[in-house]
Structures are given as C-alpha cells and as structure tokens.
Amino acid sequence: MSNFRPQPRPGVLSISPYVPGKSGAPGVAKVFKLSSNESPLGPSPKAIAAYRGVGEHLEDYPDGAATRLREAIGRVYGLDPARIVCGAGSDDLLNLIARAYLADGDEAIHTTHGFLVYPIATLGTGAKPVVAAEKNLTTDVDAILAAVTPRTKVVFLANPNNPTGTYIPYDEVKRLHRGLRPDILLVLDAAYAEYVRRNDYATGLELVAENDNVVMCRTFSKIHALAALRLGWMVGPAHVVDAVNRIRGPFNVNAPAIEAGIAAVEDAEHIERSRQHNERWLPWLTEEIGKLGLTVTPSVANFILIHFPGTDGKTATAADAFLTARGLVLRSVAGYGLPNALRMSIGTEEANRLLVAALGEFMGATA
Ligand SMILES: *Cc1c(COP(=O)(O)O)cnc(C)c1O
C-alpha cells in the first residue's frame, strides 16, 4: 500500500523532529522561560522601534538581498557585505549549506552533543550524519579528524557548543582546519560568540577570510534577542556565497527582521549590557548550583548544563517537573543524549535567584 503513495527522499523519515524548549508552565502565574537561550534583557529598544516602523508597509516585498542589513553587519564586523548572506535564522543558513554541499551518500560530521539542526539538515539532503566523540563534553579535534572519510563533505562545529556550553581554543579550530582536505567545508557556528570572555577564543573570522573552505554562521536570536523574527547571517568565500544565494528563497528574510537587525547590530551599548549581565550571573549560578551538590559543566555561553544524580528521585525529569510547577521552565536535553541533565539559560536576577532557591528545595526534599 505504501508504495502507492508519494515517498519522501531517503533520509527524511530518519529525522527525529526537533523538539523546541517548552515555553509555558500550565497554571503558573509568572513564567520564566529559561529554555531556549534567549536574552533576559530582551532586544535593543531601537530594534523594537525599527520593527514597529515596518508595520506601516506590510504590502511591500522586502529587499531580497537584505543589502542595508549586510552593509550594517559589514561595518560592525569589518567584513565585505558581498561575502555575507542573511537567512531566516541560522537554521535557514545551515539547511541551505547542507542542501548546496551534500547529496545522497555524502557524510557530514558533528560532535556527540552538537546542535541538533546539523543532523536534521544533513539527513534532509540524503547524506549521512557522522558523530565524532567528545571528551569531557567538549569538542575533540582528533576525533573529528579521525571521522573523516573520502565521503566527508562538511564538518559542522558549534563553538561554543549548545547544549554543553563548552568551547575549544582558536588554535584547536585552526588545527582542525589544517587537518581537513581542502574540498571539505568547515562550518563554524558562532551563535554564542559574543558571550565568550576567554583570551584563547576567537570566532574564526580570520580563518574564513583566508581560506576557500570555511564559513561562519551567526544569529540574531541570542545576544541580540530577536529570536521571534528569525534572523541570522553567514560569511564565507565568494564561491560559497554564490552557491547559497542560488538556492535560498528570494525573500528569505522578512522586512521587520531586516530593520530590527540593522538597529540591533549597531546598538553596541545594548550588546555590552547583555554581555555584562551574563558575565555577572553565569559564574554566580555555576557556583550556587554547585554548592547544592549538582555538577554544572563549565560554560562560556549564556546557559549552563546542570547534571542530576539520577538516583533517589533526583532525576532531571523530576527536577524539570518541580521547577516547571514554580514557573521556572528549563530545557530537557534528553534528545541530545543527556537524559539526566537540564539546560538553563541565564535569566534575570529574579529568575536566577528563584531557580537556585527552588533547586535547593528540590535537592533537600526527600524522594
Ligand atoms: C540558538 C542556536 C543557533 C541559532 O539559531 P537561529 O535559527 O538563528 O535562531 C544556531 N546554532 C546554535 C548552536 C544555537 O544554539
């Protein structure tokens, strides 16, 4: 019977659909959404104003080339706008890269707890996701290099990674690149780059500029707090930009996103405020949650991974239910192979303090 109806291409039905972080807590008056790494400070007020301004002209198609947005990004990052492509979130760009560079029988590598969009985008093309083991929940360059085969076409690397919050130093990224054949595309996903305060970290823009096989994806969903608008950008060599531009939707970025994005990327003060908020609360949460006897993976991003003992009722599932009942909505990461951990986005001061108090209660409660 199933042969007599349309069949999706091989790979599509192997995809485990992406499960977004929960956004609600039924019956709770005040909800703190700490499940998708959105910024607790919200977007720049200038971005909100720019977004509202577009409401007067919803009949017009947006600029399909997002020219003014690419120019603004180019000014802020010192990049040639011609090397930038904007997308409906970095999801869009990651999928476009997969579609442009992967086909049946090809392989794309990501790490054990790499962002779930990588295997989804890979399987959608008929190619095979290949998992490179991590060490201590951190990217292991040697494992990635060992996973390369003649069929490898793409390597996806989130640095820092989500959901682990860990990173590898720039020297390691360069060593990875040196070890890859020149026909393998290295995709650096720097969604959380703005938060990282480590001397040995770099996003890799220089690697993109100097090579024919490196691209970088960035997002407006995290520090810029425009997740609702779906906006991201990538920068790469001219030939990759050309390929991606050929297959992207002609109007893949909407007009409100373009205008809000320009205002957001230019609001250095707001970005700095968001960074400082994170710099204050990331170490505080790591320490306070550690004091409760829970392990927190050291994070350089705007979220932490909290590990539960998994015994005596102290499971991630039980903690999730306990916290949700108090309006504290964290992210289950069972889909990432971390059934006894929860990921928490750094929240407002109020949310962070409530979370530590509630977790203390949870850990103290007898099973
Ligand atoms: C959140 C996130 C993104 C951003 O995705 P958008 O589609 O731009 O919202 C990209 N990569 C990683 C690793 C992320 O965690």
TrEMBL record:
One Pfam entry name: Aminotran_1_2
Domain spans labelled Aminotransferase class I/classII large: 30-359
Domain of life where this protein originates: Bacteria
Gene of this entry: hisC_2
A single MF term (Gene Ontology): pyridoxal phosphate binding
Top-level EC class as recorded in UniProt: transferase
Designated name of the protein: Histidinol-phosphate aminotransferase
Residue list for modification N6-(pyridoxal phosphate)lysine: 222
Pathway(s) served: Amino-acid biosynthesis; L-histidine biosynthesis; L-histidine from 5-phospho-alpha-D-ribose 1-diphosphate: step 7/9
Gene Ontology process terms (BP): L-histidine biosynthetic process
Assigned protein family: Belongs to the class-II pyridoxal-phosphate-dependent aminotransferase family. Histidinol-phosphate aminotransferase subfamily.
Named cofactor requirement(s): pyridoxal 5'-phosphate
